[in-house]
Amino acid sequence: MDFAELQDVIERTYGDRDRERGVSATVAWLAEEIGELAQAVRKGTPEQQLHEFGDVVAWVATLANQQGVDLNEAIQRFADGCPKCDAIPCAC
């Protein structure tokens, strides 16, 4: 699944609820999920880490949908390596 497919699934599954919740609440949920990911990375099992990575990516897709951002387009700035120096590995 690429980001466009994920954003479509998220929109079809949660779009109405996401719009009702609003951007501010979505940012709060994303922040909470990032905290859960941090804890899973520090003390969790590989299964817990996988779960939390999935949650974070899903909430990023939700926020991108609310803001009208195409995540495939957003990540293109990294397609050639570092977006500042265009090097792989980064030479900054």
TrEMBL record:
Gene3D superfamilies, alphabetized: MazG-like
InterPro entries: MazG-like_dom (IPR004518), MazG-related_YvdC (IPR011411)
Ranges where the NTP pyrophosphohydrolase MazG-like domain occurs: 24-79
Pfam families tied to this protein: MazG
Protein name: NTP pyrophosphohydrolase MazG-like domain-containing protein
Native species: Ilumatobacter coccineus (strain NBRC 103263 / KCTC 29153 / YM16-304)
High-level lineage: Bacteria, Bacillati, Actinomycetota, Acidimicrobiia, Acidimicrobiales
